[in-house]
Automatic annotation (TrEMBL):
Residues 208-278 form the Carbohydrate kinase PfkB domain. Gene3D superfamilies: 3.40.1190.20. GO terms for molecular function: kinase activity. Keywords: Kinase, Transferase. GO terms for biological process: myo-inositol hexakisphosphate biosynthetic process. Belongs to the carbohydrate kinase PfkB family. It comes from the Eukaryota. Pfam families: PfkB. This is Carbohydrate kinase PfkB domain-containing protein.
Length: 363
């Protein structure tokens, strides 16, 4: 298993490579468009990394119709259109507290090939395609140029209906990516996506992080597993919650946090994202508080660091206090914002998840 503690570069902040196309997301409820925004896992992840001042490179393709201003310029494919997803949401909330969605890819930009990747070396690589744009050979190239590769399983198991583009999920073992699992460090899956792989088998090869909305997440590695506590959130839009979680996770790993602390940071950013529609805008005061808490946590853990990669997966002393500190930073910022703005008084949901109804669902 590749662990987060592996380092080969003599630089103060490891570099991150993000691979996955930008998208245009259209949110539809009761046949009415309720939101349109920049989408794609790469955009949500870059938003977290940029907010936390983590240097990163991003490889994404867009078409001639791309209309957003972004910090990381995409590869423009003039003969193509930008990938577009339509997300159809239920009007109600189910017994499990989730709003299901039906996701359709209505347009797809070009695939990302190994030749599109930069001629450089990175400490962390993130394969986060959402529209089937990452090829097996592209992931293999990422493994070659990155010390640790983190993969969102949606980049591996999504399939798309030939008629209307409805997103379907296939068994991981049926894909060409399966043979590469022993060479990656982390595989992120949602609780629904976990039904399409054998977690007990895959955890022998790499760390599997299972996100479960309001219930936080679970970290599974070859020698054990651990549940990581969630943060309360007032849900507006679940889109991108898992992506922001992934951005928070890699931010923690870049900063040298143990995996449980990094996953906790992931839960934190996931909770922030669902409170806004589309790509979130993080308050600068909150981000500074989070940076300060992460730095304090990093210094605290340096005193108990040991030269054992497996210790990176054990919950270090003070983990619960770190959770409380992050929660307090969020609460203080929200109270400050409420004092400076008029509240609408509208009731919001107190849960979040990324539940998506799929055409094929296997036990």
């Amino acid at each position: 298993m590749v662990s987060a503690s592996r380092k080969t570069h003599q630089i103060s902040t490891p570099r991150v490579l993000i691979v996955g196309n930008y998208c245009h997301d259209v949110l539809i409820q009761n046949d009415i468009v309720v939101g349109e925004s920049l989408g794609g896992a790469s955009s949500f992840i870059a938003s977290v990394l940029n907010g936390m001042s983590i240097p990163c490179s991003l490889v994404a393709k867009t078409g001639h119709d791309f209309r957003y201003q972004v910090n990381h310029s995409p590869i423009l494919v003039s003969a193509s259109k930008t990938t577009v997803f339509h997300a159809y949401f239920d009007s109600g909330v189910h017994d499990n507290g989730n709003q299901d969605r039906v996701l359709k890819r209505v347009c797809a930009c070009d695939l990302i090939s190994p030749m599109d990747l930069p001629d450089a070396r990175f400490d962390f690589g993130m394969a986060v395609g959402v529209g089937g744009e990452i090829l097996p050979e592209t992931l293999e190239k990422m493994i070659e140029i990155c010390d640790v590769v983190l993969v969102d399983i949606q980049a591996l198991i999504r399939d798309f209906d030939a008629v209307d583009g409805t997103v379907k999920l296939v068994e991981l073992r049926e894909t060409e990516f399966c043979s590469l699992l022993p060479r990656i460090g982390f595989l992120k899956v949602s609780s629904e996506e976990a039904m399409f792989l054998d977690v007990e088998e895959v955890r022998k090869w790499c760390c599997v992080v299972v996100t479960n909305g309001e219930n936080g997440c679970k970290v599974c590695w070859k020698d054990g597993e651990m549940r990581i506590s969630p943060f309360l959130a007032n849900q507006e839009d679940p889109t991108g919650a898992g992506d922001s979680f992934f951005g928070g996770l890699v931010t923690g790993l870049v900063q040298g946090l143990a995996v449980p602390d990094a996953a906790l940071l992931g839960n934190f950013f996931g909770s922030l994202t669902v409170e806004q529609i589309g790509l979130p805008e993080f308050d600068s005061r909150l981000l500074q508080r989070v940076k300060d808490e992460v730095q304090r946590r990093r210094i605290q853990c340096l005193f108990c660091e040991k030269n054992d990669d497996e210790l990176m997966f054990l919950k270090p002393a003070g983990h619960e206090q770190f959770h409380s500190s992050l929660g307090a930073a969020k609460l203080v910022t929200q109270c400050s914002l409420q004092e400076s703005t008029d509240c609408s008084g509208q009731q919001k949901l107190a849960v979040y998840d990324e539940a998506m109804r799929t055409v094929e669902r296997k036990p």
